[in-house]
Write the C-alpha cells for this entry.
Amino acid sequence: MMVDSPDRPEPLTGDRNLETEEFVVNMGPQHPSTHGVCRLILTMDGEVIKKVVPDIGFLHRSIEKIAENRTYHQFMIYTDRIDYVSSMNANHAWCVAVEKLAGIEVPERAEYLRVIMAELNRIASHLVFLASFAIDLGAVTPFLYAFRERERIVDLFEMTCGQRLTYNYMRIGGVSKDVPKDFVSETKKFCSYLYPRVDEYEAILTENPIFLGRTKGIGLLDLPTAINYSVSGPPLRGSGLKWDIRKDEPYSAYEKFDFDIPTGENGDTWDRYKVRIEEMRQSARIVEQALEGLPEGGIKAKVPARFRPPQGEAFARIEAPRGEMAYFIVSDGSTKPYRVKIRTASFCNLQALPVMARGWKIADIVAIFGSLDIILPEVDR
C-alpha cells in the first residue's frame, strides 16, 4: 500500500511543460557499429540527435608522405591498405594515375583483366556492406549468406594472385600475372550463381517490415546537399544523380561494356541499400561481358624497374565501391613522386553524416552511419 509522502513530486498534468537538458554521448571509437576507429560525438535531447561531430584521426598513417618516399612501383603495395575491402580498385586507381602521368599504353588484355578484378572486388565489397549493415540492424541471416558468396570471390582472387585480402595484383602498365586456365570457367559459374543469391537477399530484406521501418525515410540526403558535400558513389546515386565515372569518364575498357547505373528516389537509407544491391547485378553483367570478350595478347607494357616519368603532373580518378577515388601526382623526373594527394570517397561522404543524422533517434544513427559504408583507412590518411 502506497503511503503519501510530503517529498513526493506532484503528478504531471497535460498542462505542465517539461524542460529537457542536452547531454553528450560518445559513440566509439570502439563501438561495434562504427566499423573501425571512428568516434561520433552525439549531442542528445533525450533520444533525439541534435548534433553529430565525427572525430577522426585514430588510424592516421601519413600514407601520402609514404608515397613521396617510395618509388612508383614500391607504393603499389601501400594502395592495398587504403581500402583493404576493395584492394583491387585501390591498385587500379594508382595505376591509371601513373600511366596517365607517363603516357603508358596498357595492353588490351590487361585492361580487361583489370575490369574483371575491379568488378569482382566491387561485388565482394558490397557483400561486406550488406553483411555488416544487416547485422547492425539485427538481421543475422544475411550476414552469413553474404560472407558465403564473398568467400567464392576471394577463392578466385587467391587462384589468380595467391592473396585473399590485400592483393597487390595490378602493376604500372598492366597486371602482375595472367589468370590461370580455370579462372574464366569458374568466374562464369560464380556469376550465374550470384544472381539468384542477390534475389534471395532481397526476399529477406527489401520489403521486410522491420527492415523498412529502420531504413525507409530515415537519414534523408537530398541531392543538392549531397553535391555540396562532395558525396560520391552509392550515397550520391541513392540521392537520385546518375553519375558514375565508369560511364561518364570511362577508363580502362569500361566504354566497351553495357551496364546500367542504378539510382534512388528519396536519398534515404533504404535507397542507399537498394543501389548497392542492384550494383552487384550490374557488376556481374560487366564481368560476364569481359570474360566473353577477353582478348589474347600481353598483360603488361614494358616499364623499367627504375621508372622515371617525365616532369609534370597528372590527375586520374576511378569509380571505387565507396565512390570516387582519385590521385593527383606531381613528378620532378625522379624515381619517386614529388607530391601525392589522394581523394577517397569515405572521407568526403562522412562529412554529410551530421546533416543526415540530425533530428533522428540514437538507434537510427546505426542505420544511417552503416548506409554510408565508410572504411577508416580511407578517412585517416
Residues 60-308 form a domain with the Cytochrome-c3 Hydrogenase; chain B fold (CATH 1.10.645.10). The longest strand covers residues 312-320. The chain has 15 helices and eight strands. The first helix runs from residue 63 to 67.
